[in-house]
């Protein structure tokens, strides 16, 4: 398996740290401590920040979202929410973060300040999913009430629309499933793309993002926990039986209905997260037991298996292309799971012989500078003497000319 440049797999857990993996080597790159995250509780906020929702049993009335930099294992900021929150998602530039609460509210936070910008009622029960479409114009939410709602992000960020009520800023809201919505994935095409949802009722449904119209329904024999869509008209869903099912969204050759291919389960533990890697050539799946599997989509074979070294579950998984500020691992952001300070670390680790050579060169440069200053001072002194002689000579010539004029007048 080859891997796209700098792809990294991030996982969250309810009992283990947020962990970064190299999908090519399966090596652990970094761990970010202090977060016990529920499902869908992991997000990227721009290029520099990782956000993880945190559930604390001792403070059940308050929610927390921890913010991390790529180069530090500890969170640098903890955002306090009015109540516990689970799913989170940020707009691509990382300036705003949306979170879904237990009471059905969407809380919008301004980043990096963490200030609560706005709260909007979206569901009557806990929010289970939040996704943003390709062009960042829409926020789609799913809830335990089986409802899917779509909001214009511009309207959500427009505080003046509060006077009209949340029900009026929602583009549409409809009852999508008879049980909790567990996954939502959006295809390419902005507002004209298709949307796929999964639910504990065992159905996978296809919708039009533009108006929420239902396009197709597929019934499975077990509850479904997650869904991922690739650009090639294929959707992948993970079930509680440990199986991954590949669904052909559109068969252009035969013009038949949607076709389903179920892959043999490696275990009977629920598949809770799916993501595409390596230019959509590989599918990453995470099971609830903490095992990550990478499958080659052409051969359908599993090419990599890894997971938490110390055990533990996985609540969510996502893929990112590299580290913050466009820097790579070799540039000192994360190296073998150890945080780095970039240029400063390189200078500290410089070899002693190189430092001695630099000091010797610096000494030579200082001597050359002093020699140049001495030569300049001599030149200035010589110039001053020469200028004095020229002035004296000019003054003497003037006196002789004045005496000659006086003799001629007499």
Automatic annotation (TrEMBL):
Gene Ontology terms: cellular component: nuclear pre-replicative complex; rixosome complex
Phylogenetic placement of the source organism: Eukaryota, Viridiplantae, Streptophyta, Embryophyta, Tracheophyta
Keyword set, alphabetical order: WD repeat
PANTHER family (alphabetical): OS09G0477800 PROTEIN, WD-REPEAT PROTEIN 18
SUPFAM superfamilies, alphabetized: WD40 repeat-like
Pfam families xref list: WD40
GO BP: DNA-templated DNA replication; rRNA processing
InterPro entries found in the cross-reference section: WD40/YVTN_repeat-like_dom_sf, WD40_repeat_dom_sf, WD40_rpt, WDR18/Ipi3/RID3
This protein's name: Uncharacterized protein
């Amino acid at each position: 398996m080859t891997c796209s440049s700098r792809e990294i797999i991030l996982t969250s857990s309810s009992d283990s740290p947020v962990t970064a993996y190299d999908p090519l080597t399966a090596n652990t790159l970094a761990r970010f401590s202090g977060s016990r995250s529920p499902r869908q509780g992991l997000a990227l906020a721009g290029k520099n920040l990782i956000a993880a929702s945190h559930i604390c049993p001792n403070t059940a009335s308050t929610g927390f979202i921890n913010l991390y930099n790529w180069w530090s294992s500890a969170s640098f900021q903890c955002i306090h929410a009015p109540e516990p929150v689970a799913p989170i998602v940020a707009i691509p530039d990382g300036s705003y973060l949306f979170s879904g609460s237990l009471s059905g509210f969407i809380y919008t936070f301004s980043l990096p300040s963490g200030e609560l910008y706005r709260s909007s009622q979206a569901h009557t029960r806990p929010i289970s999913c939040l996704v943003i479409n390709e062009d960042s114009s829409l926020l789609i939410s799913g809830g335990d009430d089986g409802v899917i709602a779509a909001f214009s992000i511009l309207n959500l960020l427009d505080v003046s629309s509060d006077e009209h009520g949340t029900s009026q800023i929602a583009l549409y809201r409809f009852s999508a499933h008879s049980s909790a919505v567990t996954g939502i994935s959006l295809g390419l095409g902005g507002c004209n793309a298709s949307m796929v949802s999964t639910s504990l009722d065992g159905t996978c449904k296809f919708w039009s993002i533009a108006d929420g119209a239902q396009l197709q329904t597929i019934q499975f024999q077990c509850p479904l926990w997650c869904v991922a869509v690739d650009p090639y008209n294929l959707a992948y869903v993970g079930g509680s039986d440990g199986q991954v099912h590949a669904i052909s969204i559109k068969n252009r050759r035969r013009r038949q209905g949607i076709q389903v291919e179920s892959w043999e389960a490696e275990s009977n533990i629920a598949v809770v997260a799916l993501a595409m890697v390596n230019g959509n050539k590989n599918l990453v799946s995470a099971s609830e037991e903490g095992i990550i599997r990478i499958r080659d989509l052409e051969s359908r074979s599993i090419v990599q298996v890894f997971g938490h070294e110390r055990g533990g579950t996985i609540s969510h998984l996502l893929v990112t292309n590299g580290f913050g500020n466009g820097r790579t691992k070799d540039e000192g952001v994360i190296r073998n799971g150890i945080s780095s300070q970039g240029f400063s670390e390189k200078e500290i680790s410089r070899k002693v012989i190189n430092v001695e050579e630099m000091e010797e060169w610096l000494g030579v440069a200082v001597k050359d500078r002093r020699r140049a200053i001495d030569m300049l001072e001599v030149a200035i002194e010589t110039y001053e003497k020469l200028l004095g002689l020229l002035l004296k000579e000019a003054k003497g010539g003037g006196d002789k000319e004045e005496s000659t004029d006086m003799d001629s007048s007499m």
